[in-house]
Amino acid sequence: MRVSFRARQGGRRVDLVLGLLLVAGVLTGLGANTIGVDWPLDLIQLHAAGALAILLLAPWKSVVIRRGLRNPRQRRPVKALSLVLLVLVLVTIGSGLLHSTGRVEYVGPLTLMQIHVGAAIGAVAAVVAHFLGHWVRPRRTDADRRALLRLAVLGAGAAVATTAWDTWAATGRRFTGSVPKPALEVTSWINDGIQRVDAGQWRLRVGTTTFDLDEVLALPHERFTAVLDCTSGWYSRQVWDGVRLSALLRAADVEPGRSVEVRSVTGFARWFGAGTLDDVWLVTAVGGRPLSPGHGFPARIAAPGRRGFWWVKWVASVEPSSRPPWAQSVFPLS
Predict the structure, then answer these.
(1) Are 230 and 185 in contact (CB under 8 A)?
(2) What is the mean pLDDT of residues 202-225?
(3) pLDDT tens digits, residue range 147-178?
(4) Residues 6+ apart with CB under 8 A from 132
(5) How far is it, in rounded angstroms, from Cα 230 to Cα 307?
(6) Do residues 98 and 112 touch, judged by C-beta distance below 8 A?
(7) Where's the Oxidoreductase molybdopterin-binding domain (predicted)?
(8) If DSSP codes are grouped into helix, strand and coil, which group holds residue 167?
(9) Phi then psi for 147, rounded to 5 degrees?
């Protein structure tokens, strides 16, 4: 199929639409990767549709790229940046689509999600550099009736492509994009290594009260089923045993304040709002067995409806805090 433009305005419009699709891809990707509850708006479907829309525009964008590469007035660094951006976008989309099949998890030492996110960050940086050097200023004529009709056709094509992909290629992924796993995998947030905590020496500090492991196990435990949905791209439904944080605080005779800070022996911490403590557990077992070191022994947090980085492992303290729970980074930075 040979694709060409009658005027340079067509190239401008393609670049504008691609820029908008990339912004939408970043926003829907961040949203799907952060939000642990199922919204009426299916962010991961929009994320996939945006990626497939970019692929549908590829023949027209290839014309723009070839024209730029043949332009003798175009500087070599600019041409190189265009090619780098092309590669990063293709790697981002390809790794995301491959991950959605559930058939491949690793490429060498890296997971597909690590490749997907890393390439996406690189692509965003390249897009910013590209637009700084080739600022495409929107015009009123960019939104004429013909352009809007073409945009509607592109949206319809992306919807059809997304439906086809979900029907014949993608596995039963969750609304976050995570693929199912029958058992928990051992993962840690960024630089947290697996901690091997001595059960006899471990103490849990709750306000001014200290519990050893036997005292924690003697607290009123409940058995419940919850999904751990990890930001590395998988989820697993398991049966957990633990004590609600609200009950833990009552046992220690501690008032929560505006929030409760849960801190790991590694220093990793998250803050939970005082009104959410009935729905957050300090768990000591999964699948009827004590936690393993890789899964947070002797005690970790289970926070249904929140992504995996909220499920703090190797808990060392549960402290009342005056800090509002919104006053923390959306993603932990360490």
Answers:
(1) yes
(2) 97
(3) 888 889 999 999 999 999 988 888 778 888 89
(4) none
(5) 6
(6) yes
(7) 194-324
(8) helix
(9) -65, -40
Cα dihedral across residues 59, 68, 6, 131: positive or negative: positive
239 near 288, Cβ under 8 Å? yes
Nearest to 157 by CA among 60, 38, 16, 31: 60
Six token digits for residue 268: 């990793």
Residues 6 or more apart in contact with residue 177 via CB below 8 angstroms = 32, 33, 44, 47, 96, 99, 100, 233
Cα distances (Å, whole numbers) of residue 255 to 122, 207, 270, 301, 313 = 45, 9, 18, 19, 23
- Rounded Cα distance between 247 and 302, Å, is 14
Cα 92 to Cα 277: distance, rounded to the nearest angstrom: 38
Closest CA to 308 of 198, 190, 143, 141: 190
Helical residues (DSSP H) of 35-144, grouped into ranges: 43-56, 58-70, 76-101, 112-133
Helix, strand or coil for residue 15? helix
Q: What is the pLDDT of residue 158?
A: 94
Q: What is the pLDDT of residues 111-125, one digit of tens each?
A: 899 999 999 999 999
Sequence ranges of the chain with CATH classification 3.90.420.10: 204-321
Burial class from Cβ neighbours inside 10 Å (0-12, 13-18, 19+) for residue 235 reads buried
Q: Helix 43-56 crosses helix 76-101 at what angle (to 10 degrees)?
A: 130
The CATH H-level (homologous superfamily) assignment of domain 204-321 is: Oxidoreductase, molybdopterin-binding domain (3.90.420.10)
Return the DSSP state at 262.
Answer: E
In terms of phi and psi (left: phi > 0; alpha: psi -120 to 50; beta: otherwise), the region of 166 is alpha
Based on its alpha-carbon atoms, the radius of gyration of the chain, rounded to whole angstroms, reads 24
328 three-state secondary structure: coil
Q: Please give the structure tokens belonging to residue 145.
A: 């009736």
Integer Cα distance of 276 and 270 in angstroms: 13
